[in-house]
Amino acid sequence: MTEALVKAFLDTVYIAECRSGQVEIAIGHLAARLEAEVQGKCFAFITAWNPMGCRRDDEENNAANRELVSLIDSHRVERIPMHAVSPDNAWFEAGWLLSDVSRVTLDQWARRFEQLGSLWWQRGHAVKMRIYHPKMPSCNNAFIDWIE
């Protein structure tokens, strides 16, 4: 984990495919438009793409995504297509917006798919990043939860 990667996470745009069309959210901001369209007390974003931040080809990413979908569906969690994209469009990861999934479950799933981060927030609160790494002393951002 590097400061540059943390900054990249914070700069990433997260886009949900809602009934009304695409809805963008960002870490540290409220997600009022998204919350108006999706029921739930809390929300999360997870992907199975590019484990440990290492690029994989589409075939590997799609296979991991199918496994993640099976896991989500087996827990009867509502999912909506969502993706993450860097501001320069150089990095893309398809994933899922989830409603009413606990942080514990989200963290288990993220670790299972070797993800460096996920998003989780409560309705009416700012979107927060969950980074699966010991806290970096140089990164003091109230919208990042460091999960060891």
What does this structure look like?
By secondary structure, the chain is α+β, with helices and mostly antiparallel strands. The protein has one domain. 28% of the residues lie in helices and 31% in strands. An 8-stranded mixed β-sheet has the order 2-1-4-5-3-6-7-8. A hairpin with a 6-residue loop joins β4 (78-85) and β5 (92-99). The two termini are 12 Å apart.
SSE blueprint:
Elements: H1 3-11, E1 13-18, E2 21-25, H2 32-37, E3 42-47, H3 58-74, E4 78-85, E5 92-99, H4 103-112, E6 117-122, E7 128-131, E8 144-146
Radius of gyration, whole Å: 14 Å
Name the quaternary structure: single chain
Fraction in helix: 25-40%
Overall 3D geometry?
Answer: globular
Q: How many helices?
A: 4
Compute the separation of the termini in Å.
Answer: 12 Å
pLDDT averaged over residues:
95
The total of beta strands comes to 8
**Roughly what fraction of the amino acids lie in strands?**
25-35%
Biggest sheet overview? 8 strands, mixed
Write the element-wise H/E pattern from the N-terminal end onward. Answer: HEEHEHEEHEEE
Strand order across the largest sheet: 2-1-4-5-3-6-7-8
Please state the structural category: alpha+beta
Poorly predicted runs are: none
As for the number of domains, it is: 1
